[in-house]
Design brief:
alpha/beta; OB fold (Dihydrolipoamide Acetyltransferase, E2P); Rossmann fold; seven-stranded mixed sheet; 9 helices
Length: 406
């Protein structure tokens, strides 16, 4: 990180800033954060030998209280909060948190009191003993829904009386309440088993007029407002180039009869966030995802939004699901995890390259390395950067790749 000027420093509004690992950049003015992210992206492109640069990072309208999901861990001494920066076994007992919403501290305090009153032992990640591991909170920012999952090591240790008390105290604070179990010693907040204590099975969120049902273990873009902007950019980038019309021209955003002719492959599709938006525009979409449960949600979300006839969803490893005998797509959407693309995915794409690839990356360090391979067949047509993660070093980068004429 470059040296900050005096006027770029601010007093962090959170008392835990500087210790908690949740917000590392609270000491920076927001404009300085955006400038630093732009510089870091461009430096990574330059060091990888790429000529492309981003002009700006699209700001988030709400630099605080922007997240729709937080996984708060339980420390071995009963802390409820987040880990200290750089530590795997030291915890910050949060009295406030500016990432999720203003009701979060009340939920965390209620969990502390439940652990104390019901004598529920906190999980010790070092010695692999104890019971309560995480409290996961998810929000429907545009629907007003809230899902709470209390994750434990062993559900059989929570008797009926304890379940009733957990339910009684937490249901005023949520619309859906789960008890979840992760019996493994690995430090993950995903539940292998779920017991619904209250409310609907799924959380519902709305983005750009589309509704999505979300499971407790589902991946969903964690910044709802900026996810809407990201979705718009992806939609614009998948549209084939038209003479005299720039990919970000507003005319591209409106439905066109030509959209019905566009075929999209949505790789790493999750529960259908991008693919369903494309199908709503009239495009034909085939989505691929390793997580079979996510594929079932994608089917449900497609039906919910009236596009089940325009979509097909397949579960399995992405690198094994390409059909080389069928006509190729007009565009492929890539939204891989932070680790980037599987090498066989890149190899397969380059063997039968589609006209357009739209790559959504949450790790630009991996992106710049993979672009070296893509540039054997493609050129970078557009770059966009969006700040989905204010107060942190993370940033989303979207790249539009088109077949090179050379």
């Amino acid at each position: 990180m470059g040296e900050m000027k005096f006027d770029e420093r601010v007093t962090p509004p959170c008392p835990h800033a500087g210790v908690c690992g949740g917000c590392l950049w609270q000491h920076m003015a927001y404009e300085a954060q955006l400038n630093e992210k732009r510089s870091l992206i461009n430096r990574a492109f330059e060091e990888a030998g790429h000529a492309e640069r981003v002009d700006k990072v699209m700001p988030c309208p709400d630099p605080f209280y922007y997240r729709n999901r937080m996984d708060y861990c339980i420390g071995w001494r009963g802390e409820v909060g987040l880990k200290e920066y750089g530590s795997w076994n030291r915890y910050v007992d949060l009295s406030t948190c500016l990432l999720l919403d203003k009701e979060t501290p009340t939920i965390l305090q209620t969990v502390r009191e439940l652990m104390r009153d019901l004598k529920l032992e906190p999980w010790d990640a070092k010695f692999h003993r104890g019971l309560v591991r995480y409290v996961v909170i998810r929000l429907g920012k545009n629907t007003g829904e809230r899902m709470i999952t209390l994750l434990v090591k062993d559900l059989s240790k929570i008797d009926d009386q304890a379940r009733q008390e957990i339910t009684r105290r937490l249901i005023p604070l949520c619309t859906t309440l789960y008890l979840g179990e992760n019996p493994e010693i690995t430090d993950l907040s995903l539940a292998k088993t779920l017991n619904l204590l209250h409310g609907n099975e799924f959380l519902t969120e709305e983005v750009n007029g589309l509704r999505y049902v979300i499971h407790p273990n589902s991946f969903f873009q964690t910044n709802t407002k900026m996810a809407g902007e990201l979705q718009k950019i992806v939609l614009n980038f998948v549209i084939p180039a038209k003479a005299g019309i720039h990919p970000m021209d507003p005319r591209v955003s409106s439905n066109s009869p030509e959209d019905d002719k566009i075929k999209i492959l949505d790789l790493y599709c999750g529960l259908g966030f991008f693919g369903i938006a494309c199908a709503k525009r009239g495009m034909t979409v085939v989505g691929f995802e390793l997580d079979a449960h996510a594929i079932e949600l994608a089917k449900q979300n497609a039906k919910l939004n009236g596009v089940e006839q325009k979509t097909e969803w397949r579960a399995g490893a992405v690198e094994k699901l390409f059909d080389h005998n069928s006509p190729g797509p007009d565009a492929i959407i890539l939204d891989p995890p932070r680790s980037g693309l599987h090498p066989r995915v890149i190899k397969t794409l380059l063997e039968k390259p589609p006209p357009t690839i739209v790559y959504v990356s949450c790790n630009y360090h991996r992106l710049v390395e993979e672009l070296k391979q893509f540039k054997t067949s493609y050129r970078v047509d557009r770059l966009a950067a969006l700040d989905l993660f204010p107060q942190t070093p993370h940033v989303e980068v979207v790249t539009r790749l088109v077949i090179s004429n050379s």
